[in-house]
């Protein structure tokens, strides 16, 4: 273990002893689970200068030790100063963090689909949740199946629903924009395209085609006025958004950059109180006639987590797909519930 990280207790003591040397607010982010995604989240946070301190947590001591040491060797190359601490399995050391990223999972189990991690990752969430009681910050949870794990964490941690933000279809929406960018021959920057996947972060998610825009112009209008450039198969593009991650998985057995940056985008929205409007996992409380579990709908994300829901009108067909997606999430929640 490196001198900088020290033991969990030594690292936390050092933080508290030197906190007054920082500005009025020390931005602290904790990352739970230092596998492929957790390590990349840590790197993305440091590359974007989002945190003054990053606390890395994993019950596998050799794994967290090597990842923290690797990042600490990189600190002089990042664009801003930060400190990185190895807290191993000391969840109490995370309680002072503004944001916690839950990346605890078993990617190998998701080779066929994201439900493959259901039982093993739900067990991880059940072990972690009691340690979050009394936590006052925001949890961004990535672990799959994302909507089920977010629901488990909410049920067993005692946190307010707004404090838990599922990365959900924030990533799938980026994949949909990627697919639309390709379908239109790379003519328009992906960030100029508004296109959202909603529902489960899984097989039952769907594209909200009634709200796809290029700039401020609806896709439906462009299909009518410029069919040469905007004529493509919606089903093919939607499937690319839905399964884009498995193109990556097929080649290297995991996804890393895209999911890590999707999570980091939510972390940034919280730390900077951006009030970002994005699809992400949130507790449904009557939206579209559904309630009692997490899934992705448009939300406003800021300092307090999910500041408000920002639902949009869905077509009749989209509404039916949303109900089907929610039904699948409820089935999975029932398989792992212990409350």
Structure report:
- This protein is α/β, with parallel strands linked by helices and 339 residues long.
- It folds into 2 domains: 8-166, Rossmann fold, CATH 3.40.50.720; 169-336, L-2-Hydroxyisocaproate Dehydrogenase, Chain A, domain 2.
- The protein has helices at 8-18, 36-47, 61-74, 118-128, 146-157, 169-183, 219-225, 227-230, 234-252, 257-271, 316-336; strands spanning 28-32, 53-57, 83-88, 99-102, 138-141, 164-166, 193-194, 197-198, 206-207, 213-214, 217-218, 276-285, 291-302, 305-309.
- The strands form 4 sheets. A 6-stranded parallel β-sheet has the order 3-2-1-4-5-6, with helices on both faces. Strands 7-10-11 form a 3-stranded antiparallel β-sheet. Strands 12-13-14 form a 3-stranded antiparallel β-sheet.
- Helix 2 packs across helix 10 and helix 4 (118-128) packs parallel to helix 5 (146-157).
- The longest helix has 21 residues, at 316-336.
- The protein is globular.
Q: How is this structure best summarized?
A:
With about 350 residues, the protein is of the alpha/beta class. It has 11 helices and 14 strands. The chain has 2 domains: about 10-165, Rossmann fold; about 170-335, L-2-Hydroxyisocaproate Dehydrogenase, Chain A, domain 2 (Alpha-Beta Complex), CATH 3.90.110.
